[in-house]
Amino acid sequence: MKRMISKAVLLSMVVAVLVGAHPASAQLSITDLGTLPGGDSFDSSTASGINDRGQIVGQSDTPSFELHAFLWEDGKMSDLGTLPSGGFSEAEAINNLGQVVGQGDVASGAGHHAFLWEKGKMTDLGTLPGSSLSNALDINDRGQVVGSSTLASDSAPEHAVLWTK
């Protein structure tokens, strides 16, 4: 003889399974990091890296409609600036020492270079010989930076690169 399970019991079993099956993300909170100070509601920002100290880096619109690298910490977003004579910058990663890497314009129409930002100063990491394009994508706690650079001509393919002190 078959036993019949009541609809109420079956429904409660399904609900219990579904509640237990929710991904962990259902318990995460979301925080609006905002944009660089002085902008308006049309400005945007993107976060691209975080370290173990909770410092976050990325890029945000500025009040002058440029894209600048930022560092977010202690609830505040700070502009990291640009390379000399550059118009834009974007941060890609941050290590546990607070060193930031990314890319930025070097001069109007002259390409972009990888940078390292530390202790309030942005340093141009350069490119492979003869190129004007490079990008830093990550940095470890030893200060080693990885990314890419084109070869001698900017229309050439990119190659993976490692910058070390």
In terms of per-residue confidence, which ranges show pLDDT below 50 for 5 or more consecutive residues? 1-19
Domains (count): 1
- As a percent range, the share of helical residues equals under 10%
How do the SSEs run, as a string of H and E?
HEEEEEEEEEEE
The count of strands amounts to 11
Total number of helices: 1
Taking the sheet with the most strands, its summary is: 4 strands, antiparallel
Q: Which geometry do the CA atoms define? A: globular
Percent of residues in beta strands?
35-45%
Q: Determine the mean pLDDT.
A: 85
Gyration radius, to the nearest Å?
Answer: 23 Å
Q: How are the strands of the biggest sheet laid out side by side?
A: 1-2-3-4
Measure the end-to-end span.
Answer: 79 Å
Can you walk me through this structure?
By secondary structure, this protein is mainly beta. It has one domain. It has one helix at 7-20; strands at residues 45-50, 56-61, 67-73, 76-81, 89-94, 100-105, 112-118, 121-126, 134-139, 145-150, 158-163. The longest helix is centred in the N-terminal third of the chain and has 14 residues, at 7-20. The radius of gyration is 23 Å and the shape is globular.
